[in-house]
């Protein structure tokens, strides 16, 4: 199903577009993902809609079968990419889990702004983006996922998540779809 509408107060959530994450090998050119996310952030700001920039600053405890980074992240790892620096009025969420709602103030922030819908972009499709989308859905937000403004380290996981998971928890669309819906507000 394609994205059908944007609620009056819709927030953009940008997941993990930070120096350390975008330097990892990904399935789609990260430059395109960053460019589209920055374009959306600019449009949301222009329409005085909330923009949330999320970065990961650690990992949750617990064993996994797949190895993952342990210890302190290198200096600069968690800094947002130069194309997406926090602006006045943006909300920054630093997380230590895949999803942006766990043990953060994101839900309270969105509620305080009257947001009923979230538009989510970023890296990685099957982890940070999906976890945040699932949490938002469970919390009662309308969820929209911008499929051309996200990527994953694994192209198979990216494709399956978009095709099979996202339609169950929200609507999907492209950057152009979201920009068109935002521009219709001005018409």
What CATH architecture would you give? 3-Layer(aba) Sandwich
Instruction: Return the domain count.
Output: 1
Order of helices and strands: EHHEEHEHEHEH
Radius of gyration: 15 Å
Instruction: Kindly report the spatial arrangement of strands forming the biggest sheet.
Output: 3-2-1-4-5-6
CATH class: Alpha Beta
Report mean pLDDT, rounded to a whole number.
92
Q: Which stretches of 5+ consecutive residues score pLDDT under 50? A: none
Biggest pleated-sheet summary: 6 strands, parallel
Estimate the helix proportion, in percent: 25-40%
Between the first and last Cα atoms, what is the distance in angstroms? 25 Å
Keywords: Hydrolase
Pfam families: Isochorismatase
Organism: Lichenifustis flavocetrariae
InterPro entries: Isochorismatase-like_dom, Isochorismatase-like_hydrls, Isochorismatase-like_sf
């Amino acid at each position: 199903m394609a994205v059908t509408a944007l609620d009056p107060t819709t927030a953009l959530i940008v997941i993990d577009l930070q120096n350390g994450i975008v330097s990892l090998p990904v399935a789609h050119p990260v430059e395109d993902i960053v460019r589209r996310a920055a374009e959306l952030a600019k449009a949301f700001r222009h329409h005085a809609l909330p923009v949330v920039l999320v970065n990961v600053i650690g990992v949750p405890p617990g064993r996994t079968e797949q190895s993952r980074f342990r210890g302190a992240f290198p200096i600069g790892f968690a800094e947002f990419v130069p194309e997406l620096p926090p602006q006045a009025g943006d909300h920054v969420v630093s997380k230590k889990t895949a999803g942006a709602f766990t043990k953060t103030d994101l839900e309270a922030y969105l509620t305080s702004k009257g947001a009923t819908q979230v538009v989510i972009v970023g890296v990685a499709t099957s982890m940070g983006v999906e976890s945040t989308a699932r949490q938002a859905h469970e919390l009662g937000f309308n969820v929209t996922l911008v499929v051309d403004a996200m990527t994953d380290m694994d192209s198979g996981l990216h494709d399956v998540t978009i095709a099979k998971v996202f339609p169950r928890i929200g609507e999907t669309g492209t950057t152009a779809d979201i920009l068109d819906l935002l521009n219709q507000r001005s018409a």
